[in-house]
Amino acid sequence: MANPTDRELVEQARGGNAQAFGLLVRRHQKRIFRLAFHLVRSGTEAEDVMQETFVRAYQALDRFDGRSEPFTWLYRIAVNLSLNTIRARKPTRDATPSDDPRVEALLLETRPSHGNDPDRATQQRQLAGALCDGIDKLSETLRATLILVAVDGLGHDEAAKVLGVPEGTVAWRVHEARRKLREYLAERGFGGQGE
Amino acid sequence: MSVSNGKLDLDVMLRSWPAPAADEAAWEQRAENIVRAATAATGSSSEFLALFEAPVLEAEPGEPDASVISAGEKRMSQESDQSSPSQRSEEQKTEAPSSAPSVPAPKPSERKRGSLKEMAARVSQAGVTSRPGLAGPPASSRSSAAPGVSASSASARPAEAGPEDSGIINLNTVKSSATPEQKKAAEAAQPAAHDLAEEGDEKLGKEAKPAAAKTAKSGKGKAASGQKSAKAAVAAVPAAKAEEKKSSGGMMVGIAIAVVGLAAAFAITQMRKPEQPTANNVATQAAPSVTAQAAPDKPAEPNTAKTAEPLAANALDNAPSEETASGSAEKSPSGAGAQAAGAGAAAPSAQPSAEEKTAEATDKPSAPAPTDKPAAPAKPGDLASAMAAAVGDQGKKDGPTAENAEPASASRSQSIPEQPSQGSVAAAIGAVMPSAKACVAGADDVSRAQVTFASSGAVKSVSVTGWAAAHGASGCVKSALMGAKVSPFSKPSFTLGVTIRP
Q: In this predicted complex, what is the ipTM?
């Protein structure tokens, strides 16, 4: 089998083919981890969420009815587990700490652009911190939707299936989240006008 | 970073926001761990069913969720009820510029249209052919005009007075001299005085008493009552003349009725009392009609001529049959107006001499009666017997039941609209719509129902189509819609289409 589809892999995994399930995991683990990472804001917890997502999915392969894509199904499980993780937490910080892994990840991504300019690096860090703050200020609903669409790159239809809401609702939530985030950044002097 | 020239490309920034980096070996190791954990894991998926459901996220304020959709559905279900007002307002908008650009839209035109329709419906329901000649102006206008007339000077006949316009019956005086039997008869005749305009010629001709009551009520009879027999005491009533000028046909009928009434009174008098001189009898017949309506206006009575007075008094004693007319007339507003108008005419009625009265009174029987009934024979002696015969007929026809029932039913039918108003239909359907919607909760398609109201206002039948019919919920929808009730209407039934959206 050269390049089996997700559905075929699921069918094979249902039949007890662990390799097929392993292929499914390898195909989607990075995206699931990234999604969980942005939702739970912790690399370790995101890893746990990712692992549990696949374990639960494997246990429930028989429940997969094939009406949606397997990755949508996996995303839904991951979102639910991430939300459970967040809700199980004690309320902690008000502001994003300087060692927020998201900030580090963003700075790692953008480091080549500012080279060795310390001022630019400081500005980028402040921007990354403000961005994380702004996302954290959003409600759970807006944040989850924004991460699915704007960060993870799901289409509105796919996000709608994951969240179980109409596409229009997803669009409205994304628009609202962007608007609030832009306002938040603008209040802190970070442009915010770029569309 | 996507900040350039003070601008922030948020979307690009978010899209390219990575997770902590890891090498491929680490990812491979993670994958193996996951597969191992998954295959080793035990337990049923039913323990964590919630993970496979949609995430539970609170709706944001202002979010376009299901409530908005249902609100839209509500509007859709009411579109049939509310379409008319909107159409109406649009019509008004379109009409307004053409009719009165700077004035608000002519809303009353709509009401006017409805009113005409209602009137037409009433006429068709009553099954009555209206007679313009009999349908004079409203009683209120007559009654309002009369006092002014009575207060005015006692002029002679105005220029617009017709040759047949003349005297007035003093109904109060007649009433005071009435016997109990006559009062009963008058009461029985009251319902017939309901509406002169709705009476046909046949009735007027055959039923002298009720018609006389109507005549007295309408105000035309006041002038017509004794005009043939008492020209000497004629008084002009300008307001009455104006009305009579417009409807001379009605006047003729009124005259005929009054003559028949007088004849009936005379006949009764003749039956009870010994015979009197013929000329006097005729004169006394005229006298009450001349002075009759002067009774409300007490100062007018002393002005009556000395020669006429005893005759009039005599006549009043002897002519109690007018009681029916006066009794009924006094109880109706228009009758009061007639009396008031007559009061003004009473004052000048005393001016002519008794000779003139007597002479003219003798002419009265020769006047042709417009009705089919021979109300006034040529000779006085014959008149008495003819009147007696006429009264006998009248007495038989006086049965109040049929006459009473007719106006009552007419008024009842007039108060019931042809079909229920849109407002009442909307309210009735709106009241039961929630329960009907509950029957189709969760449906993925609309259901439709045809609701038929009986004339009593209750729902007669409901037919359900669409989703509810296909999924066995038609009974539930039917029972819900059967609870609707509108106000009674005259049409046999009224059917309405209702759309029920889940």
A: 0.81
